[in-house]
Amino acid sequence: MSEGGGEGAPERGGLRAALGGLTTRGRSFLAAGLAAVVCSYLLGQADLLRVGLLLAALPLVCVLVLERTRYRVAGSRTLSPARVPAASEARVRLRMENISRLPTGVLMLQDRVPYVLGPRPRFVLDRVEAGGRREVSYRVRSDLRGRYPLGPLQLRLSDPFGMCELTRAFSSVDTLTVVPRVEPLPPVRLAGDAAGYGDGRQRSLALAGEDDLIPREYRHGDDLRRVHWRSTARYGELMVRREEQPQKARCTVLLDTRGIAYPGAGPDSAFEWAVTGAASTAVHLLERGFSVRLLTDTGTSVPGPDSAGSFAGGAESAEAVGLLLDTLAVVDHSEEEGLSAAYDLVRGGNEGLLIAFFGDLDEEQAAVAGRMRQRSSAAVAFVLDGDAWMRGPGGIRFSGGQVPVAERLRLLRRAGWTALPVTPGEALADLWRAAADRAAAEPQRSAETGAPETAAGGWS
After folding, report:
1. Which residues of 380-394 are buried (b: 16+ CB within 10 A; e: fewer)?
2. Distance between CA atoms of residues 280 and 286, nearest Å
3. What beta strand segments (E) does 87-244 contain?
4. Residue 38 and which of 62, 233, 281, 417 are 20 to 30 A apart at CA?
C-alpha cells in the first residue's frame, strides 16, 4: 500500500512483518497444513499431502498478495479547534481517499492519542471504490493543560479470507494544545489612577520643545494648522508637526511556579488555579489595550513581539492572547526556592501595574515580594491560603502551612500591595472586584490614619 496525501507515506515492514501479521485463523491453517504434510510423509498418503499443501499455501498466498497490494490511499486529519481550553472538547476529523484504480478491501482505521485524551478511536471502513473517500470523526477532551500529539494514523488491511492483517502507519503527527481556562473579569478600576494607566493614559508629545522638533513632510489631508513654518522655511517645503503619540499602559503578570509553594496536584489544585488566574488577567488586560508581560519566579520573562518585550493589546490582542495561552499551556512547577530571580528582573525598570499570583510564602519571600512593589505604580497580589488548600474533605488537615496567611497579607499590605487571600472554590471575578474595592478604600484609610498614601495605578 502506498499513499498520496496529507498524512505522509505509510511505513512498510517487508515480508517478515507481513508474516507476523498472520491472524489466528491463518496460523491455524498453516499449522494444520504442516501437520498434514508430516503425516502424509509418515503414512505414505499422497492425497493427505495435497490437502496439507493447500492448507499451508493458502495463508502464505494471502500474506504475499496483501503485502504486494499497491493501494494508494491519501489520509488527512483536521482539528477543530487546534487550541482548546481545559475541560472542553475538540473534534478530530479523519479523511481517507482511495486514489488508486483498484478498490480497497475492508480497512480498520486507528488514530493514536495520549491516554489523557481518552481511548484510541477505531473505525471500520467498508470497501472503498476507486476514487472514493470516507470521512469519520471523534472527540477528545482533557482536564489537564498541555500539548498532546495526535497520530500517527494507522490503517489495518485484511485479506478476504481473514488469514492476515497488516498495519500501515502514516508519518504525520498533529498537536492539540490544551490551554488554561479564561474566566471573564468585571471591568473595574483601582482608585487613584496614575497617569499613563487605565483611562488616565498619558500622552507624550513627539517633541520636547522647538529645538527638539522632528517634523515630517506635509501629506495630503493634513490639517494646515499643524504646519510648522520655521521648518518649512528651512527645508523649502511644507513641514508639519508630528502627532501626539499615546503611551501604552504597561502591566506585568507575575506567576509564582515554585513547586514547594503549592500543595496537591491535578486540575483542581492550587497551582492550576494560579495558572488560570494569570491567564484570565493577561487576557483581560490585553483586550483593554494594555501592554502585558508575563513573568515567572525563575526570572523568565516570556518575550513578546513588541519593542519592550511585551505583548501589545488593542487591535493586535487576538494574536497576543494566543501566544500567551500557548505559553501557559505548558508552564510547570519550578525548582526555585525563592522569588529573588523575579525580583532582579522587576527592579530593572518601571513595571506599571503589577499583578502577582503567589503560592505559599514564608516571611523572607514575603519581604522579597514587598520590595517588588517599589518599581510599580500599583500592585495587586492574590496569595494562596496554603492552610485552606491543605484541608481535605470534611476539613481534615493533611499538613501544616508555613506562615499564617494573615501575617503574609499584613507584610505585603505594609509594603503597598493590595493583597487578598485565595481559598479553594474562590471565584477570580469576585476577588478581582474585591481588589478594586480594597484599592479604592486604602487611600481613604491612609488619610484618616495620617499614614503616607501609596501610589495606586488604574486598571480596568
Report:
1. bbbbbbbbbbbbeee
2. 10
3. 89-98, 107-111, 122-125, 133-141, 146-150, 153-158, 165-169, 174-179, 203-204, 216-217, 239-240
4. 62
Cell representation of residue 293: 508581560
> What phi and psi, each to the nearest 5 degrees, are found at residue 387?
-65, -40
438 to 181, 207, 378, 420, 443: CA distances (angstroms): 26, 39, 13, 9, 9
Each residue's pLDDT tens digit, 398-432: 444 456 788 889 999 999 999 999 999 889 999 99
327 closest CA partner among 359, 355, 360, 292: 292
Residue 394, SS3?
helix
403 vs 409: CA distance, rounded Å? 10
Instruction: Tell me the whole-structure pTM to 2 decimals.
Output: 0.75
Identity at 437, one-letter amino acid code: D
- Cell 512498510 identifies what position? 12
The SS3 assignment for 199 reads coil
CA-nearest of 255, 245, 171 to 206 is 245
Angle at which helix 363-372 crosses helix 405-414, to 10 degrees, equals 30
> C-alpha cell of 165?
492483517
The 10s digit of each residue's pLDDT in 150-202 is 989 988 877 878 898 888 888 889 999 999 999 999 988 754 333 334 443 43
